[in-house]
Predict the structure.
Amino acid sequence: MRRLLPALLAAVVILPTKALAWGDAGHRMIGQIAIEALPGELPAFLRASSADVAELAREPDRWRGAGQPHDEMRDPQHYFYLDDEGRTPGGFDLHHLPATRGAYIAALSKVGVDPDSVGYLPYVIADGYQQLVKGFAFWRADAAGERFATDAKKRAWLTADRQRRERQIVQDIGLWAHYVGDATQPMHVSVHHDGWGDYPNPDGFTTQKVHVPWEGAYVAAEVREGDMRAALPAAGACGRATPLACAGAYLEQSRAQLRPFYALEKAGAFKSGEAKGRAFAAGRLAAAAGALRDLISQAWLESTKAAVNNYPPVPVADLEAGRADAYDVLHGLD
């Protein structure tokens, strides 16, 4: 790498472009800082899970190399390669994504593009959010059942079920945190994903393989938790936007940082000790931690309007008000 800590190029094995997002240090810090920044009204088990989420956030990269069909199905979840206009080869931008992954696959396939080559990152982020809403809904149902239960055996079952749900929620968040983190690495949302590549390059940006050394060894060497905490954005939410629209807007913010990244690299800002480079990297990591914090918080609030079970669905509000028996709903009658 020309100016991006040149010594790292000699020390780091340059992996294929699709191999990694942030390295171990980056994903750990994103998961830990996001959980530590959660509002106090979220359940205590979750606010105490920062160490577990930090470690689990590394998992999707550690899964790689398991073989096929595993890798083919999972590797494209880490990125969403867009052109300089912010569009896929099928002409979609991040504000007008097909509503489902299936519709997106069909649209790209129709124009002769393999959707795996573009990736699925916004869909993975939206999916993880919806999974978390459902997980929180079941946790609320268990907790409500414990409050209202008069039968000791039923209450004991509900307590055990809540504890199982807590472990599941922490795992779900930890794995999902990886992809929320991937999205703030600007090269994960651009065709210029490992150097500028074979494209018009009037600004003379590097064509060297800068992806892995920057997000991995550079971050580990230069960025500290204090840098990220100082750059953590204020709490926010997507409001009434759909989860996919929220994910699209989030990726668009990251895509806007691609040229600034390459301009900083060109200026030598990623040399060891350079404040501008360190601030940029810390800002990208902090954006991920802030987004994860906000998405978890929003999922918790949305879970009050969710339902559990399917046949028939039972609103969480009915369980929390004692209008339905949580043990019968959750343990099952069939």
About this structure: Residues 1-19 have pLDDT under 50 and may be disordered.
